[in-house]
Amino acid sequence: MLIGKDLLDKARSLSNRPEDEIARGCGYVGPSGRVLRKSFYRALVEAKGYKVPSSNGGSNGTRGRQAEFRTRVHGNGNLLIGHAYTRRLGLEPGQEFKIELHRDSGSIWLLPVEQESAKSSSQPVESDG
What we know:
Among the domains are: 4-47, no CATH class; 83-122, no CATH class. Helix content is 33%, strand content 9%.
C-alpha cells in the first residue's frame, strides 16, 4: 500500500479511472480481493497533510465491534451466533451440539455431544452367531 507522496503521485496518474481502480492501483486491496476504501481515503487525507483522528473512535484501544449479547432471527428463519460468542466459549469448528428448547423461559441450550459416545453408538455390534 502506497502512502505519502508516492500515493498522491500514483492516484494522480490514475485520476481518469474509477475510484476502486485507483485504490487497487495504489495497493489498497484486502486478502479476499476487496477494495479497502476507508484505508485508501484515510491515507489520501494524511498524504495531503491533514491530521486524521485515530480510527478506534476513542474506544480505549479495543478493536472492532463489541459483542452486544443480542441477535435476531434472519428473514430465512436462521438464528446466528457470531464468532465473538463462540470464541468466548472456546468452541472449535466441527464441534457438535444437541439443541434443547426451553419454551417456558424462551431459552435455547446448546449441549455438547460427546464424540466418543457418538462414535461407539454408530458402530454396528458384532454377534458371535
